[in-house]
Amino acid sequence: MLLNQKEELARKNDKLDALIATREKFFSIISHDLRGPVNAFHGLSTIINSSIKEKQYSALPEVATHIEKAALHLSMLLDNLLSWAMNQKGSLPVNPENLNIKTISEEVVAIFQTMAISKKIQLNSNIESPMEVWADRNAVFTILRNLVNNALKFTPYGGRVSISAKDEGVFTCIRITDSGVGIPKEKLDRLFVKKESKRTWGTSGEKGLGLGLQLVYEFVKMNYGYIEVDSKENKGTTFHIRIPSQKFEDEKVPQELEHLLDR
């Protein structure tokens, strides 16, 4: 009887640990996803102040349009987060479906366009034809939002950030490329290793907690994908995210691809 009680207590402790870990991940998602629109509003306020000081009032109607779009995307983001919160059942929900990466990429670009404008960065989606992946929609949005947000944060004024994609058969490769400050090799080797949260600072003083890339790594894995990074200091960075382009048979990863998912 004591042994059974001990085993039951151990199971309950494991479940409690899983719930706490899920809660922490969820709060991290909220923090990172809200930071993008907030930064966009900050950038727009800078443009408004500059226009007023220079008496260039003709630019204000366009700024008002960007504010309206940013508010709309913020509302949509809050709706998505609320939906996630209401569906919490001890783990982050994973509901894979066929997703059009071109459409999602363009929506992410629209969310961050005001932030890009405030730093005079060219932000583009260069996916010309529809490409599909089999993945959870919220997870893919979180992956792209975090990587584009990071790219903008670490790219100086007048730089470039782009999203592209390539059909590689079993996988679709999504690339987020920037002309930013790059990542030192000693950090590149341990980029996705879990560590204590530490603030990082972008080229315009933007704040970060260092949790975004950990979320990206976990969400890519959660969708049976893998991620690679190419980066050179002062030259820029490219993240390669490979996600299955269609549902695996019987939802099992083919044996010949298992070594890729261990990366």
Describe the structure.
- With 263 residues, the protein is an alpha+beta fold.
- It has a single domain (2-261), classed as 2-Layer Sandwich (Heat Shock Protein 90), CATH 3.30.565.
- Helix content is 51%, strand content 19%.
- The chain is built from seven helices and nine strands.
- A five-stranded mixed β-sheet has the order 2-4-5-9-8. The protein has a two-stranded antiparallel sheet with strand order 1-3.
- Helix 1 (2-53) crosses helix 3 and helix 4 packs antiparallel against helix 6 (212-222).
- The radius of gyration is 20 Å and the shape is globular.
- The N and C termini lie far apart (44 Å).
- 29% of the residues are buried.
- The mean pLDDT is 79.
Question: Briefly, what is this?
Answer:
This protein is of the alpha+beta class and 263 residues long. The protein is built from seven helices and nine strands; from the N terminus they run H-H-E-H-E-E-H-E-E-H-E-E-H-E-E-H. Helix 2 crosses helix 3 (101-118).
Topology (SSEs and partners):
Elements lengths: L1 H52 L6 H27 L9 E5 H18 L3 E4 L6 E5 H17 L6 E8 L3 E8 L6 H4 L11 E2 L5 E2 L3 H11 L3 E7 L3 E9 L13 H4 L2
Helix pairs in contact: 1-2, 1-3, 1-4, 2-3, 3-4, 4-6
Under CATH, the topology can be stated as Heat Shock Protein 90
Are there runs of 5+ residues with pLDDT below 50, and where? none
The CATH class: Alpha Beta
CATH architecture descriptor name: 2-Layer Sandwich
Name the assembly state.
single chain
CATH superfamily: Histidine kinase-like ATPase, C-terminal domain
Q: What count of domains describes the coordinates?
A: 1
